[in-house]
Design a protein that fits this description.
Distance between the termini: 28 Å
Number of strands: 3
Number of helices: 6
Number of domains: 1
Strand content: under 5%
Order of helices and strands: HHHHEHEEH
Radius of gyration: 25 Å
Strand order of the largest sheet: 1-3-2
Helix content: over 70%
Shape: elongated
Structural class: mainly alpha
Protein backbone atom coordinates (compact mmCIF):
# COMPACT_ATOMS: atom_id res chain seq x y z
CA UNK A 1 0.00 0.00 0.00
CA UNK A 2 2.77 2.41 0.92
CA UNK A 3 4.58 1.56 -2.32
CA UNK A 4 1.48 2.53 -4.31
CA UNK A 5 1.20 5.78 -2.37
CA UNK A 6 4.81 6.65 -3.13
CA UNK A 7 4.25 5.85 -6.81
CA UNK A 8 1.17 8.09 -6.88
CA UNK A 9 3.16 10.88 -5.25
CA UNK A 10 5.92 10.63 -7.85
CA UNK A 11 3.35 10.51 -10.65
CA UNK A 12 1.45 13.53 -9.31
CA UNK A 13 4.71 15.46 -8.88
CA UNK A 14 5.64 14.74 -12.50
CA UNK A 15 2.19 15.82 -13.68
CA UNK A 16 2.52 19.03 -11.67
CA UNK A 17 5.86 19.81 -13.29
CA UNK A 18 4.48 19.07 -16.75
CA UNK A 19 1.45 21.27 -16.23
CA UNK A 20 3.53 24.09 -14.75
CA UNK A 21 6.17 23.73 -17.46
CA UNK A 22 3.54 23.89 -20.21
CA UNK A 23 2.06 27.07 -18.75
CA UNK A 24 5.52 28.64 -18.56
CA UNK A 25 6.31 27.60 -22.14
CA UNK A 26 3.12 29.24 -23.39
CA UNK A 27 4.04 32.37 -21.45
CA UNK A 28 7.52 32.33 -23.03
CA UNK A 29 5.81 32.08 -26.41
CA UNK A 30 3.84 35.29 -25.76
CA UNK A 31 6.85 37.15 -24.38
CA UNK A 32 9.00 36.04 -27.31
CA UNK A 33 6.54 37.47 -29.83
CA UNK A 34 6.38 40.80 -27.97
CA UNK A 35 10.19 41.00 -27.86
CA UNK A 36 10.43 40.16 -31.56
CA UNK A 37 7.96 42.94 -32.40
CA UNK A 38 9.98 45.43 -30.34
CA UNK A 39 13.24 44.46 -32.05
CA UNK A 40 11.63 44.94 -35.47
CA UNK A 41 10.11 48.27 -34.42
CA UNK A 42 13.49 49.46 -33.14
CA UNK A 43 15.19 48.46 -36.40
CA UNK A 44 12.60 50.19 -38.59
CA UNK A 45 12.57 53.32 -36.43
CA UNK A 46 16.35 53.63 -36.61
CA UNK A 47 16.41 53.18 -40.40
CA UNK A 48 13.64 55.77 -40.79
CA UNK A 49 15.47 58.22 -38.54
CA UNK A 50 18.68 57.95 -40.55
CA UNK A 51 16.76 58.37 -43.81
CA UNK A 52 14.92 61.49 -42.56
CA UNK A 53 18.15 63.00 -41.25
CA UNK A 54 19.90 62.37 -44.57
CA UNK A 55 17.04 63.93 -46.54
CA UNK A 56 17.01 66.97 -44.24
CA UNK A 57 20.75 67.43 -44.66
CA UNK A 58 20.46 67.14 -48.44
CA UNK A 59 17.76 69.84 -48.49
CA UNK A 60 19.87 72.06 -46.24
CA UNK A 61 22.92 71.61 -48.49
CA UNK A 62 20.88 72.33 -51.61
CA UNK A 63 19.54 75.52 -50.05
CA UNK A 64 23.04 76.70 -49.12
CA UNK A 65 24.29 75.89 -52.63
CA UNK A 66 21.43 77.90 -54.15
CA UNK A 67 22.38 80.90 -51.98
CA UNK A 68 26.14 80.62 -52.69
CA UNK A 69 27.66 83.44 -54.72
CA UNK A 70 30.16 81.52 -56.84
CA UNK A 71 31.42 78.07 -57.82
CA UNK A 72 34.13 77.98 -55.16
CA UNK A 73 31.61 78.68 -52.40
CA UNK A 74 29.34 75.93 -53.71
CA UNK A 75 32.22 73.48 -53.85
CA UNK A 76 33.18 74.25 -50.23
CA UNK A 77 29.60 73.56 -49.16
CA UNK A 78 29.65 70.20 -50.94
CA UNK A 79 33.03 69.30 -49.47
CA UNK A 80 31.84 70.19 -45.97
CA UNK A 81 28.35 68.64 -46.04
CA UNK A 82 28.61 65.63 -48.36
CA UNK A 83 30.65 63.38 -45.97
CA UNK A 84 27.96 63.69 -43.28
CA UNK A 85 25.24 62.86 -45.81
CA UNK A 86 27.14 59.76 -46.90
CA UNK A 87 27.56 58.72 -43.25
CA UNK A 88 23.79 58.85 -42.73
CA UNK A 89 23.31 56.81 -45.88
CA UNK A 90 25.96 54.13 -45.27
CA UNK A 91 28.03 54.26 -42.10
CA UNK A 92 25.45 54.89 -39.34
CA UNK A 93 22.84 52.42 -40.71
CA UNK A 94 25.59 49.79 -41.07
CA UNK A 95 26.61 50.17 -37.41
CA UNK A 96 22.98 50.13 -36.29
CA UNK A 97 22.25 46.91 -38.22
CA UNK A 98 25.38 45.27 -36.83
CA UNK A 99 24.32 46.10 -33.28
CA UNK A 100 20.74 44.96 -33.82
CA UNK A 101 21.77 41.64 -35.36
CA UNK A 102 23.98 41.00 -32.33
CA UNK A 103 20.94 41.83 -30.16
CA UNK A 104 18.76 39.42 -32.15
CA UNK A 105 21.21 36.54 -31.68
CA UNK A 106 21.68 37.35 -27.97
CA UNK A 107 17.89 37.26 -27.70
CA UNK A 108 17.83 33.84 -29.40
CA UNK A 109 20.47 32.51 -27.00
CA UNK A 110 18.56 33.85 -23.99
CA UNK A 111 15.36 32.15 -25.16
CA UNK A 112 17.17 28.86 -25.78
CA UNK A 113 18.60 28.98 -22.26
CA UNK A 114 15.08 29.54 -20.91
CA UNK A 115 13.76 26.56 -22.90
CA UNK A 116 16.57 24.38 -21.58
CA UNK A 117 15.84 25.41 -17.99
CA UNK A 118 12.12 24.70 -18.38
CA UNK A 119 12.96 21.34 -19.94
CA UNK A 120 15.25 20.61 -16.97
CA UNK A 121 12.34 21.44 -14.67
CA UNK A 122 9.89 19.16 -16.51
CA UNK A 123 12.25 16.26 -17.18
CA UNK A 124 14.44 16.09 -14.07
CA UNK A 125 16.72 13.23 -15.10
CA UNK A 126 20.18 14.05 -16.44
CA UNK A 127 22.52 16.99 -15.93
CA UNK A 128 21.10 20.53 -16.01
CA UNK A 129 22.03 22.89 -18.86
CA UNK A 130 25.15 24.98 -18.24
CA UNK A 131 24.33 28.42 -19.60
CA UNK A 132 27.75 29.97 -18.89
CA UNK A 133 29.76 27.62 -21.09
CA UNK A 134 30.59 28.75 -24.67
CA UNK A 135 28.71 27.54 -27.73
CA UNK A 136 25.23 28.10 -26.25
CA UNK A 137 23.39 27.72 -29.57
CA UNK A 138 24.70 24.27 -30.46
CA UNK A 139 24.73 22.96 -26.90
CA UNK A 140 21.16 24.14 -26.26
CA UNK A 141 19.77 22.26 -29.27
CA UNK A 142 21.70 19.13 -28.29
CA UNK A 143 20.42 19.45 -24.71
CA UNK A 144 16.80 19.77 -25.85
CA UNK A 145 17.19 16.78 -28.17
CA UNK A 146 18.63 14.68 -25.35
CA UNK A 147 16.52 15.88 -22.42
CA UNK A 148 13.11 16.26 -24.05
CA UNK A 149 13.90 13.74 -26.79
CA UNK A 150 12.57 16.09 -29.46
CA UNK A 151 13.31 15.61 -33.16
CA UNK A 152 14.70 18.87 -34.60
CA UNK A 153 14.99 17.52 -38.15
CA UNK A 154 11.54 18.99 -38.87
CA UNK A 155 12.86 22.53 -38.18
CA UNK A 156 16.09 22.14 -40.14
CA UNK A 157 15.63 25.44 -42.02
CA UNK A 158 15.37 27.51 -38.84
CA UNK A 159 18.24 25.68 -37.16
CA UNK A 160 20.51 26.10 -40.20
CA UNK A 161 19.63 29.79 -40.48
CA UNK A 162 20.33 30.27 -36.76
CA UNK A 163 23.82 28.82 -37.25
CA UNK A 164 24.37 31.09 -40.28
CA UNK A 165 23.30 34.18 -38.35
CA UNK A 166 25.52 33.18 -35.44
CA UNK A 167 28.50 33.03 -37.83
CA UNK A 168 27.63 36.55 -39.01
CA UNK A 169 27.28 37.70 -35.41
CA UNK A 170 30.70 36.25 -34.55
CA UNK A 171 32.23 37.96 -37.59
CA UNK A 172 30.81 41.29 -36.40
CA UNK A 173 31.93 40.90 -32.79
CA UNK A 174 35.34 39.32 -33.31
CA UNK A 175 36.42 40.90 -36.61
CA UNK A 176 34.38 44.12 -36.88
CA UNK A 177 32.47 42.66 -39.82
CA UNK A 178 35.56 42.12 -41.95
CA UNK A 179 35.90 38.85 -43.81
CA UNK A 180 39.54 37.93 -43.41
CA UNK A 181 40.24 34.58 -45.08
CA UNK A 182 42.93 33.91 -42.50
CA UNK A 183 40.50 34.29 -39.58
CA UNK A 184 36.94 33.92 -40.84
CA UNK A 185 35.73 30.48 -42.00
CA UNK A 186 34.84 30.04 -45.64
CA UNK A 187 31.28 29.31 -44.53
CA UNK A 188 30.72 33.08 -44.40
CA UNK A 189 30.98 33.20 -48.21
CA UNK A 190 28.40 30.41 -48.44
CA UNK A 191 26.13 32.43 -46.17
CA UNK A 192 26.47 35.50 -48.37
CA UNK A 193 25.46 33.46 -51.40
CA UNK A 194 22.53 31.72 -49.70
CA UNK A 195 20.94 34.33 -47.39
CA UNK A 196 19.12 37.29 -48.92
CA UNK A 197 19.79 40.80 -47.65
CA UNK A 198 23.51 40.37 -47.02
CA UNK A 199 26.36 41.42 -49.26
CA UNK A 200 29.96 42.54 -48.99
CA UNK A 201 32.16 45.46 -49.94
CA UNK A 202 35.09 44.27 -52.00
CA UNK A 203 38.39 45.18 -50.33
CA UNK A 204 36.75 47.75 -48.05
CA UNK A 205 39.35 50.45 -47.34
CA UNK A 206 42.11 47.91 -47.99
CA UNK A 207 41.15 45.86 -44.93
CA UNK A 208 39.48 42.99 -46.73
CA UNK A 209 35.85 42.32 -47.60
CA UNK A 210 33.32 43.79 -45.17
CA UNK A 211 29.86 42.41 -44.50
CA UNK A 212 26.95 44.63 -45.51
CA UNK A 213 23.56 44.05 -43.90
CA UNK A 214 21.01 45.56 -46.23
CA UNK A 215 17.74 47.31 -45.38
CA UNK A 216 15.25 44.80 -43.96
CA UNK A 217 17.85 42.13 -43.14
CA UNK A 218 17.53 42.51 -39.36
CA UNK A 219 13.72 42.44 -39.51
CA UNK A 220 13.72 39.29 -41.64
CA UNK A 221 16.26 37.64 -39.33
CA UNK A 222 14.19 38.47 -36.24
CA UNK A 223 11.04 37.09 -37.89
CA UNK A 224 12.76 33.85 -38.92
CA UNK A 225 14.32 33.35 -35.49
CA UNK A 226 10.94 33.94 -33.87
CA UNK A 227 9.44 31.20 -36.07
CA UNK A 228 12.35 28.91 -35.12
CA UNK A 229 11.81 29.52 -31.39
CA UNK A 230 8.05 28.99 -31.68
CA UNK A 231 8.65 25.69 -33.45
CA UNK A 232 10.98 24.58 -30.64
CA UNK A 233 8.36 25.49 -28.04
CA UNK A 234 5.73 23.50 -29.96
CA UNK A 235 8.03 20.47 -30.10
CA UNK A 236 8.60 20.54 -26.33
CA UNK A 237 4.90 21.05 -25.53
CA UNK A 238 3.90 18.26 -27.92
CA UNK A 239 6.40 15.96 -26.21
CA UNK A 240 4.88 16.76 -22.81
CA UNK A 241 1.34 16.17 -24.10
CA UNK A 242 2.32 12.85 -25.70
CA UNK A 243 3.91 11.67 -22.45
CA UNK A 244 0.76 12.71 -20.56
CA UNK A 245 -1.38 10.54 -22.83
CA UNK A 246 1.17 7.72 -22.71
CA UNK A 247 1.88 7.78 -26.46
Amino acid sequence: MRLFQEADKVRSDLERRKLGGTLILNNIRLITKCEKDKLIELSRSADSMFQREREDRIKCMEQKIAEAKDHEARQRIVDDDAPDIVDYRDYFPAIQRYLLLVMVMSWVETKLISLCRITDYIFEEGDPFKSRDPGVLKRAIEHLEKKAKIDTSCIEFGWTLAKYLQEIRNCIIHNEGFIDDAKIPGAIYCIINSVSGIDKYEEFKGAGNKLVLELGFVEESANNMHIFLEQLIDLIINKVVLEKTGQ
